[in-house]
User: Fold this.
Amino acid sequence: MTVELLLFDLGNVIVRVSHAAMAEALAARSTEAEFRDPRRLLALAFDDRDGLTVGFDEGRLTADAFYRAAVERLALSLSFKEFADCWNAGFEENREVTALIRRLQGRYRLMLLSNTNELHYRHLEPQLPVLSLMERKILSYEVGMRKPSRAIYDRAISLAGVRPEQIVYIDDVAAYTQAAAQLGIQAITFESAEQLESALRVRGVV
Assistant:
């Protein structure tokens, strides 16, 4: 079946993410010895099941509420602005991927599907012009659900308005691509721009 739409993840596909860099920046501002260890802070903040980020990524916490929760839980001593700067450390555009997306623009419809939060997305959007090419942006904090929940993939399929088999979905997390594939979406687990281009070529997309 003809591919109509390419559905991209954001973190570690379009932009490289270093949670370790974020953790190091925040750990340096903690008043408790336990949390001055970036590895300990990383585990508490970014655990995919019960870390501090879960409620923020699902939009259940505002940016201010998340800041206050992080300050209390991690014994941080910093302003909201300083917190946002630390929280947004460690991003780098994957220029090989963004160049590939620009090559595909106009040949295929483009959409974004990301587990992200208000502070990260508002920081990244003006720095990544390629995001303006996405006709729809399904962001976990806006829709109130996260991958690999079936509901967020159903939302993507509905907004795309095409059959699941006509969608190619690219994500770096295997559990997320597997969840999409169970719904009939053509899913690629991202490893590198070169590997992605090869996988798209196999599907006749490039």
Notes: Residues 19-87 form a domain with the DNA polymerase; domain 1 fold (CATH 1.10.150). The chain has two domains: 5-16+92-202, 19-87. Residues 141 and 192 are 26 Å apart (CA to CA).
